[in-house]
Amino acid sequence: MPVPGEPGRYPRPRATDVLRRALALASVVARAGLEPRADEPEAAAMHRRMLDWLRVTGLQAALEPAEAALVGLPLGSLSDVAMVDASWRAEGIHVLAWALDRHAPVPHDRMVDPDDVAWTLGFLDNAAPERLHDAALRGDREIDTFLARQLALHWRLREYSLRPGPMDFAAVVANGGWARLDIDDADLIDDDLAIDGVRIDRADDAQLARCTSIAAERHRAANWLAGADSIYSSVENIT
Fold first, then answer.
1. How many CB atoms lie within 10 A of CB 111?
2. How far, in Å, CA of 133 to CA of 143, rounded?
3. Hey, which residues does 195 pair with through a beta bridge?
């Protein structure tokens, strides 16, 4: 079982960096959300509005090259795989919004509503650049505790995919040198991880896949907050 070490090799991002990254990810997720509506005039208008907003606010520069290419693709040209992958970035936005104290935590087995998160950050607001300097982050200790929790959740889901069956998850974490497992009792059944109200070994494949994708994206965002890498997409998670 991996043991979380020091937060990271890179300096932790500043609050302004976190908000810029969150707004960049919101653009990626929004572009993915427009793809199923490619034939609708309203979707085309929203796409133009988003591209104009990125240009006018200067937030285009916050996009990584691959993100900028994806966001700029004409509607109807995004592959199904790219659309799904981009949609999952909403879970990372949630973590960054939580770190900025703009959104409450979402349970590990519940997907985030991307619209609910994006609007709290100032997505498509032309005044967003002026508000960057008002951003403030939670303390390092709180972020590191959150990271330890994401690591534990992600590890349990990946471990289950390799060796299915119940375990005393709480005891493994407590005895493995990890930080305190900061999850509610409602997240455990018989001392193992619960998914949608059942113990992990009783969840179906779709539930497991959904929660593993949630965990991977949230773990990546938490690692980035702790300085795992200066480039968001380059953050490596346990596999």
1. 17
2. 20
3. 198
